Amino acid sequence: MSTFLHRALQHEMNNQTMLVPLQQPIVFEIEGFDILPGSGPFFFLLALLFYMLVLLGNGVVVCVIVLDKKLHRPMFVMICHLVVCDLMGATAVLPHLMMDFLMGQKKIVYLAAISQAFCVHVYGVAMQTILGAMAYDRYVAVCEPLRYHTIMTSARLHFCCALAWIVALVLIAVLFSFHMNAPLCGHIIRHVYCSNRGILNLACSPTPTNNIYGLCMTWSVSSVVFIIIAFSYIRILTDSYKQCRTDSKRSVGSALVRSKAFQTCAPHLVIYTLFEIASFIIIVSYRFPSVHPNLIKFFSILLIIIPPAINPVIYGLVIKDLRTSIIPIFTRDGRIFLKLALLKAYHLIGIKEGDEWKTASNTPPGHYEYPVMPFGLTNAFQRLVKDVLRDFLNGAGASVSLNQRSVFVNETWELGTPMFFIIQGLASIGEKRVVLFVILLLGYLVILGGNSMIIFVTLSDPRLTSPMYFFLQNLSFVDLVYTTTTIPNMLAGFLIDQLTISIPGCFLQMYFFTQLAVTGRAILTVMAYDRYLAVCNPLRYTAIMTRSVRMLLVTGAWCFGLLCTLPPTVLAFLRPYCGPNMVRHSWCDLSSVRTLACADTSIDNVLSLSFAMVALLTTGVLILTSYFLIATSMYQMGVPERLKAFSTCAAHLTVVSISYSAASFVYISYRVGNFSSEVRIIVSVLYSALTPFLNPMIYSLRNKELRIAIRKTLASFRPAATSTVKAIST
Question: Is 730 within the bounds of a domain?
Fold first, then answer.
């Protein structure tokens, strides 16, 4: 009897404890996926590659629609809104999920949880409302083709898009207003992301009002959108059938009508069907309790990860106008557009009356003005013809080559294109080049010696087998190859008057330089994760950081560098180059070479900037997060443990600080107009060589084990020399 009373009393106390409302600041813990220990980096890599695919696909679609004037039509404007909605949904979930896989970071503060849940629900509603607006647009385009532009005016288009977003924002804002007065008694969200239901499941008391409103809202939005889409497609099918009956005697015309209607509506119908199928799978999965929790959680994120990945592919493949605007970016499609017999007819092209003074020159015989175009204005005339032709080609790139009397369209290497680039370097500094040559040569020798020594010592010494030295090997190898792609070429430029490089060699140098730069930052990020595990999880460090996990992290770092640099480099390689061939840098820098293209490079600029932001922000945020967690753990340690943790991270933190400080200084030098081009080139050279130069010194000075191993390696060469001297003296 006493045992029964004791259990009842304990149960009552537990219930009372559970019903104590949480006080701000509230920190939730997301349950996430139940994965095997050590497999987190693998799933992180999959999520990262998937997220980059989403960013790349949707980013290309947005850039093409914004930059191509032919696509400034209602359907493509709505596609832009749909793509923005996809990006919002994927960005709300995937970055936090990646942090969970990589670092096991499951905690999220209350405001961030509400923000994530709000964005996820807005994404779900806005996706349906935008698809409903697109169905109305398709209905007008197919059923009222003659009145389409009269009905879908700019004002009505913007009203439809704004209405789709406003409905989603207002409905979800009302839904989340019920959170204001709902006390929470739990902190574990049993899902992979925060949602309205996941948060309110932690409420101290039932929330029937929120439940009823949520169900009514979901049912109303889904039903209204379904009715709009069903009505639109029933009318489209009816009108297409009538048109086919009218044109039954002309089978070709009937086939064209059906084909046009299909191309107009197929992408929208496929996307809506996929969205509804994903929603149906989620609903069904929750009705079977026997299904594994991981499978239910995976099904629950299908709605967020599938549409953002599939939508750009569907629209890019099916819609002809969008496809024809995307394909020339990645493929060659060269053809001779026009013949201009101007090689020996410059005297027939007159200078505009009143502009003769622009060609004036003073010579010993007197003052002269050209009434016709002189040969020196060839480049200006080429640019004029290119601009004129672009208007007739709907924005396509046109390149002019007067030497071969041809105008090419979308051709990468035209007749008359230079077969090499001239590297400007520091040609204007005169005799000081010898001094810079000596300084750069000595620095390069130090880079080769220091990084080669670290690689040799960490490979030969059996005591240096920890993951930190494995990552240090890879970082030293990256520094060696990174500097070797540029410094030998720069050294040659100091000794000769004019340094040239072939076009394939230029783009190979460009690719390896940018790829190794991004890979180096990715390896620094992996090393930050390694330091986080060593400090915050010392007992599980060896179990987590196995050999397979190390190899996977390093492979992911190299793949990350490949994905971030290959698309901009390939796009730059496919551009036409038919004008000046002087690269105003010390090596083939991407931005410097791009200025020599004789085609519109707006998409190149957006794409390269997007990938640069992805590379910098991804690595920077992960490194900052690692050290924030390390600092939080160090705050709870004693003084001896704190000093040991600091010594563990000091070398890596110093290298990261120097790398980002140098990058910031380079960025500032390009934004300040007072700096000359020579100063900017010198700053870029110092930035590319500074980190590889200092890395061996920093790690050998701050790491006792590495310092001892280097001394033993150097001392191993002395006995042979000593014995030789003794033999001679004897």
Answer: no
